[in-house]
């Protein structure tokens, strides 16, 4: 067996190409522009330039995220006057505060002297008189002269009346 010396050259693999002189040139296709992906360079630093060129007629939207509510930089020393309804611990305290109300007393004196009251003053008087009447009924106080005569009756009947009155109280009115 004859021996062949090993070589690093590789023989032809596959089919050979035709010589360059005999080849047909590939048809020239028209060049087309590549689609660009993303935004052009510099848009991060100059966002108003690109948006103003593309849509000049639209109103520009504020690019900031979050609340647009203005924050006062100077703090006012005087607090805003806020009228809060006083809360009372018992009906007796509320009744006492109504009876000691100076404005209410002055308006009642005007009514007694038959002076005309404004619409707001009448509403105020009506509101307080209605609440005063409710509290008097709740506490068992009556303005009638006959109440003194009823107090002289038997002690059992007044105890039963007080118990019935206590059971009829609606606790939700005091919340």
Automatic annotation (TrEMBL):
Pfam families cross-referenced by the UniProt entry: YihI
Disordered as annotated region, ranges: 1-85
Highest taxon of source: Bacteria
Keyword RNA-binding carried by entry: no
Ranges of compositional bias, category Polar residues: 42-57
Biological processes, Gene Ontology terms: ribosome biogenesis
Protein task: A GTPase-activating protein (GAP) that modifies Der/EngA GTPase function. May play a role in ribosome biogenesis.
Subunit field text: Interacts with Der.
Family: Belongs to the YihI family.
Protein name according to UniProt: Der GTPase-activating protein YihI
């Amino acid at each position: 067996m004859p021996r062949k010396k090993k070589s690093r050259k590789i023989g032809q693999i596959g089919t050979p190409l035709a010589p360059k002189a005999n080849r047909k040139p590939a048809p020239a296709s028209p060049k087309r522009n590549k689609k660009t992906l993303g935004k052009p360079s510099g848009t991060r630093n100059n966002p108003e330039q690109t948006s103003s060129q593309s849509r000049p007629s639209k109103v520009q939207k504020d690019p900031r995220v979050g609340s647009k509510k203005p924050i006062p930089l100077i703090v006012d020393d005087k607090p805003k006057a806020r009228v809060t309804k006083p809360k009372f611990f018992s009906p007796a305290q509320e009744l006492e505060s109504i009876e000691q109300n100076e404005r209410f007393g002055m308006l009642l004196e005007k009514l007694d002297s038959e002076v005309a009251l404004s619409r707001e003053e009448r509403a105020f008087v009506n509101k307080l008189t209605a609440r005063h009447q409710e509290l008097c009924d709740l506490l068992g106080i009556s303005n009638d002269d006959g109440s003194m005569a009823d107090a002289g009756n038997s002690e059992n009947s007044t105890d039963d009346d007080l118990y019935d009155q206590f059971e009829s109280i609606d606790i939700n009115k005091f919340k």
